[in-house]
Amino acid sequence: MALTTSSTNQSVLDAQLELWHTSLAYIKSMALKCALELRIADAIHSHGGAATLPQILTKITLHPSKIPCLRRLLRVLTTTGVFSAQQHLDGGGEQVVYGLTLASQLLVGPSNLSPMTSAMLHSVTVSPFLGLSAWFQRELPAPSLFEMEHGHTPWDFTPQNPDAGGLSNESMVSDSSFIMNIVVKECGDIFNGVTSLVDVAGGLGGAAQAIATAFPHVACSVLDLPHVVANAPASTNVKYIAGDMFESVPPANSVFLKWILHDWSDDECVKILKNCKKAIPPRHAGGKVIILDMVVGAGLPNQKHKETQVLFDLFMMSINGTERDEQEWEKIIFQAGFSDYKITPVLGVRSIIEVYP
Ligand SMILES: C[S@@+](CC[C@H](N)C(=O)[O-])C[C@H]1O[C@@H](n2cnc3c(N)ncnc32)[C@H](O)[C@@H]1O
Fold first, then answer.
1. Are 298 and 326 in contact (CB under 8 A)?
2. CA torsion 125→127→128→130, rounded to 10°?
3. Which of 81, 144, 164, 312 is the most exposed place for a label (fewest CB within 10 A)?
4. Cis omega (within 30 of 0) for bond into 110
């Protein structure tokens, strides 16, 4: 072992802990995945937000032989902050009462984040990462990590795998309902002067619907691929248009791009942005593109912020996407012919980027 002579036993044990902590990090995710599949948060929620193990057991399906193991799963989930645990004295002795933390409150109730969390933890999403080092050893242009594992790009894979496609679309709707509620409250003024808006690659229209509801004077439409638009909700205040953003973008006063450009390479982003620029009027006539995406390093990131942003970058690398820092954003924005931009980092690890022609 290449240890320096000054290493103390304690520091060496701390170093081993570091390796173990990182090596076992996937068990955290798998415990969360299991909790979602067993619907443990729903079970606690249905008991008013706090439940003992026997109460949880009345709501979830488990083989009786595995009941003792549930306590151990819950110990991981409480230690990692998904649920809380409090000791309570009752007639028969001490009982642990499990509660929802703010994080698990986001997994229950109407329009919750469990579809997005389930999609991130789905075997289709996770399995490509086992081939990461093999992917690094292949020459570019190589298939993405996702393509190496599944034989298709995500865009070709989902139409052929309706379950995965459905979950992916639903996950986006759940994320959009969540984040757009905050966008409207924290930075609703970005929609000042907007009269019509096209949500490019807007999926089933979660974001466009939120904008149309909060700002009824804005005529909202969604552009997405035909197989996605075919499943769009029938009666909404949003118009759905089937098309290809690499071909053209329907005209509007402004274009909205939520969680799109991080899916694509710089060259592809420049193509999409050029089509967006053609779709909108000049700046003096109110034209702008509103991007909701991550700006790596933006805001006042703490360690968890930083780690989440760089983990997201590797996550996106699996489909040949990328999370960009400000310089990288500036490069594609200016290459697409825009003259100015403004970053507002008020959405946790994500930001709003207003881009002007
Ligand atoms: C990550 S999802 C984002 C959906 C939505 N913007 C949201 O955040 O809820 C990416 C979307 O891009 C769409 N998409 C992929 N290629 C496209 C293309 N060439 N033209 C239009 N939409 C496309 C997909 O169908 C999918 O709905």
1. yes
2. 140
3. 81
4. no
